[in-house]
Design brief:
Elements (H helix, E strand, L loop, with lengths): L5 H15 L15 H12 L8 E8 L5 E5 L11 H12 L7 E6 L3 E2 L2 E2 L3 E4 L8 H13 L4 E2 L3 E4 L40 E9 L2 E7 L6 E4 L2 E2 L4 E6 L5 E8 L3 E6 L3 H15 L3 E2 L3 E3 L7 E7 L3 H10 L3 H16 L4 H14 L5 E2 L11 E2 L1 H10 L6 H7 L8 H4 L16 E7 L2 E9 L5 E9 L7 H13 L34
Parallel strand pairs: 5-7, 6-8, 7-16, 8-17, 11-14, 12-14
Antiparallel strand pairs: 1-2, 1-23, 3-6, 3-18, 4-5, 9-10, 9-15, 13-14, 19-20, 21-22, 22-23
Helix pairs in contact: 2-12, 3-6, 3-7, 3-8, 4-5, 6-10, 7-8
Family: Belongs to the peptidase S13 family.
Keywords: Carboxypeptidase, Hydrolase, Protease, Signal
GO molecular function, one term: serine-type carboxypeptidase activity
């Protein structure tokens, strides 16, 4: 974890000591009559911003140490959380699946081996591993070849029955259908990179003489590429998969390299294509067609790959706000608790977990926050953040939250460019959330006195550009909070937030980085 100055190191040390002590840490001797009134006045001033005149704003701040509510406005109102939903999904997954949980992907056979010939079908069975790369499927194919198999007389069967067949969330917008952050959910999927953007392919273009060259990562013949782009003086290109098809149409002009992450239409069929190609590469010929179905109960395992642990997966999931990880974990929880890999079963697990931990106002429609029908109150978010501090998995989960102003992509995450050079830098651990007209920031911060605070900021229904700087000003003010000293003129608070492209999470705007 990098630090940019001695003051940041000192601040981070204070924060770490405060949070490591957990809810049982000794009380700090403070004068409660001083400082809180100034904090309330300053937050009210920040929220008086004209951009919020017609909007809805809910903010709650609580002392993690004493349980005292230091500030609240519209604490119980139901607001759209966007990716703050992932706080609930990730916490429920840590509790339900455990930090050591892994996703296995296996290859099975349904017949018997005679020499180098395998009679019957070859089955590829998945359980939702979002970290599977093309190279991992290739390694499984190599293991099949290493078992001495050269010919499979039957079919190549893709078994994705660990999850149900519903690929998209009920409330997801139709025009997000080809976007990688709304990729279809399947128990068999593949990622093109180590951000683990499951269910998508990177489509790249570059000028090659007077022609536009197109390539994909991974290399695949699954997509049908229609290249209508031309070489031009500047890059102004659109790479888009046509709705409900495998066809990617490329239009516009290309001057230099450019790439887009494109969701595939059917992750199971895509993975089946990757695996068949790998089998062929390793000298294994499958005579039958590719099919989809459940492996019979008597199928024997030939090869296995296991994912990283959930504790490790929390880092790319939460730091980069990966929607697909959230939905896969939701279905995985449903499968474990109710033997149903469905949204309805998984969301019940998350909701039951939240309610068991004192959360009252909650409406979960998906695991990621992409649905605009998701609803939480700021008070409910703070209640969850407070309750999980006593969990045995809390430290790992807490470290998976984005850290303000830290430039390391897998440390700062979606907060890596925000609140730099302020008391909040390397102090605030919080989850971002953004949709058009929605932004939220909820998490933890250590005050100037070393007091651990919990906060939730939810801004909805604004018509301006994204007011993330308002969130940052509040978070910085909390980092400056002292019960015995005023922080000074709120107008001089330095939020350190660059302009964001539109209203989506910066991690949703690949290839633009946070």
């Amino acid at each position: 974890m990098r630090r940019t100055s001695a003051s940041l190191v000192a601040g981070a040390l204070v924060a770490a000591l405060a949070w490591a002590s957990g809810p049982s840490s000794p009380a700090i001797a403070l004068d409660p009559s001083t400082g809180v009134a100034d904090l309330n006045q300053d937050i009210n001033q920040i929220l008086s911003d004209s951009r919020l005149t017609i909007a809805r704003a809910g903010v709650v701040v609580k002392s993690a140490q004493t349980g005292e509510e230091l500030y609240a406005t519209d604490a119980g109102k139901l607001l759209t959380p966007a990716s703050n939903t992932k706080l609930f999904t990730s916490a429920a997954a840590a509790e339900t699946l455990g930090l050591d949980y892994r996703f296995p992907t296996t290859v099975l056979n349904t017949g018997r081996k005679v020499g180098s010939v395998l009679t019957g079908d070859l089955v590829l069975r998945g359980t939702g591993d979002p970290t599977m790369l093309a190279g991992d499927y290739d390694a499984l194919a190599a293991k099949v070849a290493a078992a001495g198999i050269k010919v499979v007389t039957g079919r190549l069967v893709a078994d994705d029955t660990w999850f149900d067949s519903q690929r998209l969330g009920n409330d997801w917008s139709w025009d997000d259908e080809t976007a990688y952050y709304a990729a279809p959910i399947s128990a068999l999927t593949a990622s093109p990179d180590r951000d683990y953007d499951a269910g998508s392919v990177i489509v790249a273009v570059a000028a090659d003489g007077d022609k536009v060259k197109v390539s994909t990562t991974p290399e695949t013949g699954y997509l049908k590429i229609v290249n209508r782009a031309t070489v031009g003086a500047q890059t102004d290109v659109l790479i888009e998969r046509q709705h409900g098809t495998r066809t990617v149409v490329i239009t516009g002009t290309v001057a230099g390299p450019y790439q887009e992450w494109v969701a595939v239409d059917d992750p199971t069929a895509y993975v089946s294509s990757l695996f068949r190609t790998s089998l062929t590469r390793h000298g294994v010929k499958v005579l039958g067609p590719s099919d989809v179905g459940a492996a019979p109960s008597g199928a024997k395992e030939l090869a296995r790959h296991e994912s990283m642990t959930l504790g490790e997966l929390l880092v790319p999931f939460m730091k980069l706000s990966n929607n697909i990880h959230a939905e896969i974990l939701t279905k995985a929880m449903g499968r474990k608790v109710a033997n149903q890999g469905s949204w309805s079963a998984g969301l019940k697990v998350s909701t039951d977990f939240a309610k068991a931990n004192g959360v009252q106002v909650i409406n979960m429609r998906d695991g990621s926050g992409l649905s605009r029908r998701d609803g939480f109150s700021p008070g409910s978010i703070v209640q969850l953040l407070s309750a999980v501090r006593s969990k045995p998995w809390y430290d790992t989960w807490y470290q998976s939250l984005p850290i303000a102003g830290n430039p390391d992509r897998f440390v700062g995450g979606t907060l890596r460019s925000r609140m730099r050079n302020t008391p909040a830098a390397n102090n605030v651990h919080a989850k971002t959330g953004s949709l058009t007209g929605v932004t939220s920031l909820s998490g933890y911060v250590t005050s100037a006195d070393g007091e651990p605070l919990i906060f939730a900021i939810m801004l909805n229904q604004y018509l301006s550009g994204s007011p993330k700087d308002i969130e940052d000003k509040i978070a910085v003010r909390l980092a400056q909070f002292s019960r015995t000293a005023a922080a000074g003129d709120v107008s001089r608070l330095r939020a350190g937030s660059p302009e964001q492209a539109g209203d989506l999470e910066c991690s949703w705007l690949k290839p633009v980085e946070c």
